[in-house]
What we know:
This protein is mostly helical. Helices cover 60% and strands 7% of the residues.
Amino acid sequence: MDNGNVYVSKKHINKIFELLENDDDDAVQRLIDEGKAEKYDSKDFKEELKKDLQHDHAILMEVKKLWMNVKRDPKLLKFVNVLSNNVVLKKNHLIIFTESKETANYLFKNLNEE
Length: 114
């Protein structure tokens, strides 16, 4: 909890997450230098906030553990059903728009299995 930084940005937080995932520290620093993001050292956080964050982290890890047992995706099943049973959708090429790269990859993987 005392190691690392926290990045804050109203408009670019998803981009920051993506850059951090790709270890592109230079691009993150450019956003900070351009005033599009702020960087806070976690050592500067108050003890109370650190305890609250640790508590939240424990809850999220428990939720993640519960999710690991879920193998069925009702939204995906409904989507596949609509694609399979709608005559117009079934006979034409489709472009599916999504904001999230993870969702696009998930749909690509799962729709190709169908």
